[in-house]
Known about the structure:
It contains twelve helices and ten strands. By secondary structure, it is α/β, with parallel strands linked by helices. It folds into two domains: about 10-155, no CATH class; about 170-290, Cobalamin-binding domain (Rossmann fold). The protein has a five-stranded parallel sheet, sandwiched between helices. A three-stranded antiparallel sheet has the order 1-3-2. Strands 4-5 form a two-stranded antiparallel ribbon. Helix 4 (about 80-90) runs antiparallel to helix 5, helix 7 runs parallel beside helix 8 (about 180-195) and helix 8 runs parallel beside helix 12 (about 275-290). The protein starts with 7 loop residues before the first strand and ends in a 6-residue tail after the last helix.
Amino acid sequence: MSQRRTDLLTTRQLADSLGVSESSVKRWIDEGEIAAERTSGGHRRVPIAAAMRFMRARGIRPTDGSMPTHGSTPALGPVDDRSSQDFELALVADDLDRARAILSGRFLSGADLASIADGLVRPAFERIGELWKCDRAGIMAEHRAVDGCITLLKELANWIPRPDADAPRAVVCGAPGDPYLLPPLIASLVLRERGFDARSLGPFTPLETMVLACTRHSALLGAVSVSVPQSSRQAHEWAEFSSAISRAGARLVIGGRCVDPVLAKAVQPAVVCSSMTEFAAYASGLRHGAPKPK
Ligand code: B12
């Protein structure tokens, strides 16, 4: 069975990211300015590398103020306060096309998923989380925003190359009782971008299930997101969990809004990361010295 290529953009995706019309993109392809491939049905598909070559040849840079815009945000550009605010507004307005353009534009401009998560997604959701206090529709907007963001991140996942057959494995999950979907999804994508064969068990994962998954997959790394408070009475369960993950041969990383000093102490010698950027750096270092999986 042939594998689906994950590094190809549709003409619509590239047009949205550049803030131009789809017909301009098609014309550039037909004139040979952008190298493209055709699907068996004859549709144009642009490898991400070719899109980046085109942007460089045209002098389109992340900080170029003369760039086309999508709404009030330059379609391509850095992850900054403005792009995060526009991402928030697009999600709250349920305008997925605009949110997609902002997200994919940052990716095409060279930002990695970790900095997109820390600099764009997290601050946008911090503000979205305040909406319910002043607006009854705030909770509705929050739920839609999470759903929309998941859709967009899963689309972006298609742009990350598949892991090599001998890539080190990793398992990610949300803590027991933790309903939050975005953090484990993002953590698994950050790992994939760093060359791991990463799988997410999603939210509400019992600790023993995480141990089982790390054992089954001979994982080099296990990461847990903790976004709901853990009582100090649970500290010994976390300590046992940390030991079990070590026995399974994996390094344990924990992160998330509700990692406090009691939990951090209980899971020692696990690594505690306060951001996805820190996590990405740790994962890259680990992979560098990683033995091949059995
Ligand atoms: C969406 C949301 C929900 C949704 C979640 C939907 C879903 N299934 O995902 C729902 C509706 C379920 C929900 C419920 C509740 N929520 Co809520 N929710 C949020 C909101 C708006 C966004 C959370 C989110 O996904 N953020 C995006 C992620 C990417 O950001 P992040 O979690 O900060 O993660 C970053 C870092 O922490 C780190 N990180 C996270 N995990 C990991 C893991 C690893 C390994 C690493 C390295 C790093 C890392 O990297 C990420 C990127 O930078 C937040 C606001 C906020 N400030 O975050 C409120 C918020 C967390 N919720 C809050 C509240 C009060 C609740 C409820 C109690 C409301 C209620 N009365 O029912 C319930 C509690 C649910 C529970 N069982 O505990 C409060 C918490 C206040 C507090 N003091 O703790 C917040 C802060 C809103 C607010 N300002 O009042 N919520």
